[in-house]
Amino acid sequence: MPVRRVVAYFCMEYGLDESFPIYSGGLGVLAGDFIKSAHDLELPLVAVGLCWEGGYGVQKIGADGKPTYEYPRIDRSFLEDTTCASGCGFAAARCRARCWSPLGSATFRST
User: Is pLDDT of 104 > 50?
Assistant: First the structure.
């Protein structure tokens, strides 16, 4: 049986959809378009990124003219916990990571 090779695409953010704000700008949108196109072309690619508990910061200007930041919670109801987990430690801190997958393969198909 031939070995099927899969490309892992690592990026800090992916602009997959406005309803899933795990990106902050143009490069995230570009990365999202790249993986959606790879999906549509049925290329063997898996996207690896970050999904912060509190989302990306949204900057607003207060009445006093100073910037404030909000970190909206992200709705993850459409993600399935794959039960794959990992962790690492550095200095006095521990980092935990879990793997999630969109429910249904067409969740973020490009149009």
Answer: yes
Q: What is the CA radius of gyration of the chain?
A: 17
Q: Measured in whole angstroms, how far is the alpha carbon of residue 109 from the centre of its chain? A: 15
Residue 111: inside a domain, yes or no? no
For the stretch 18-45, pLDDT in tens is 878 788 888 999 999 999 999 899 999 9
Number of independent structural domains in the chain: 1
Contacts of 54 (CB under 8 A, 6+ apart): 71, 72, 73, 74
pTM of the model: 0.68
- How many Cβ atoms are within 10 Å of 78's Cβ, its own excluded? 14
* CA dihedral for 99, 103, 106, 110, sign (positive or negative): negative
Which amino acid makes up residue 96?
R
In a domain, 42, yes or no: yes
Residues in the chain: 111
- Measuring CA to CA, which residue among 95, 98, 94, 96 is closest to residue 83? 98
